[in-house]
Amino acid sequence: MPPSRFSSSITDKLYIFKNNSCYFFVLIFFYNKSMKRVLRFRNALPFRRDSEEDCEREPSKTEKRNNKALNERFKLLHAEFDQAGLFNPSLSHVLSRIAEFSLYLFLAWVILANCEFSACRRILGIFMLTMAYGRIVWLAHEGGHYSLTGRPRVDSYLQKFLYGFGNGLSASWWNHNHHRHHAMPQRIHRDVDLDTLPLLAFSKKCFSNQNLQSAKNFFIKYQAILFLPVHTFIVTIRWSLYLHPQYCYRKGQFFEIFCISLHFLFALTNFGILNFLMAKWLWSMYMFGNFSISHTHLEVTAEPQHWVEYAFHNTINVKSTPFMDWWMGWLNFQIEHHLFPTMPQFRSPLIKKRVKKFAEENGLPYKEFGYFEAFKATLKNLRDVAKEH
What we know:
Layout: H1 5-42, H2 52-56, H3 61-83, H4 91-113, H5 119-144, H6 152-167, H7 171-183, H8 218-221, H9 223-251, H10 254-270, H11 273-292, H12 307-313, E1 317-318, H13 322-327, H14 334-339, H15 348-361, E2 368-369, H16 371-388
Parallel strand pairs: 1-2
C-alpha cells in the first residue's frame, strides 16, 4: 500500500532536519556568543527597580514627553563619546595604577617588616600602607563598573582579588549595594548610603516612627565630631570581620573568602596588628570621607525622577586639580561618573565641559564644590541633623 501524502511529508521534513541540524546548532552557538557580547556591556550598568510608589504613580503626558526627549538627547551625547573612543579601555593606565599601589605596599613591607621600633620609620610605613589600601579601593571600584579592561569577566575577578586581598572586603557585597546607590542617589529608602542608622544619619528624613528613638543615642548626637575618627572605623571593622565574610559564605563566594583570608594573613604576619589597625583607621577616614562629600550633604528625595536627573540633582563634583584628581581617584567627577559608569574614570576631565553644556541645554543644575567646601557642607549637615533630633 503506497504511503499517504501526510506520512511522506513528515518523512521529508525529518530528512531535511537530519541533514541540516548541524547548521542549526552552529547558528545557535554563534547567536549565544553574540548575545553574550551584547549582554556583557548591558550587565555592566546598574539596574534600577522601581519602588511600589513609582509603579502606582501614573506620569502625566507632559512628563512622559519630557522624559522621552531627555532620553534621546542623552543617547546622542553617549554616542558622541563612544565615537570618540572614550569608553575604550586603557591597559597602560590600569598597569600604571597597579604599579603605584604595588610600590606603596612594597615600601610598607620593607619598612614595617624590618622596623626596629623607630617612630619615624613606623609612621612612614603606616602611611605607605594606608596609601596602598586607598589606591587599591579606587581601582577596585572601577572593576565593579567594568571600566578597566573592557572584559567584564576579567574586571570582575580583578575586582574580587583587589577588594579581597587588598582591602579585606567583598566585591560582590560592594557591587550589590553600590549599584543601588548609582540607580537612585539620595532617594530615601532606595539609596543604601542613607541606611546608616543607628550609627549615623545624613538626613532627618531617614528617621521613621519606628527608629525615632535611635536619634537620641550618643553616636547620632555627636556624629559631626565622631564621623571621621570613629564612625568610619567602626564600619570598616564590621564590614571586614562580619558583614562581608558572612555575605560571601551565604552567596557561595569562596574565592572572595580565600582572598579576604589572605589579606589578614599577609597583613598580620608582615606588618603587625598595631600597625595594621592604624593603617586601617587612616584608610577608613580616607575612603569614607572622600565618598561622603560627593552627595551625603545634599537634600534627599522621595519623589521619582528621570535617571539622568538623579545624577545632576543628587550628586556634586569636587573642583578638579591634578592633585585632587589623583587623591580622589577621579571620583571627584561624580556627575560624569553617574552618567557614564562604564567609562574609564581618568577620562572624566575630558568630557566635563560637554556634560556641563548638556546640563545647561536641558535646564539641569551642575553643582561643583571645592574640596574643603564639600567637607564643611558634609559636617554641617551632620551637625544640623543631630540638632534637629
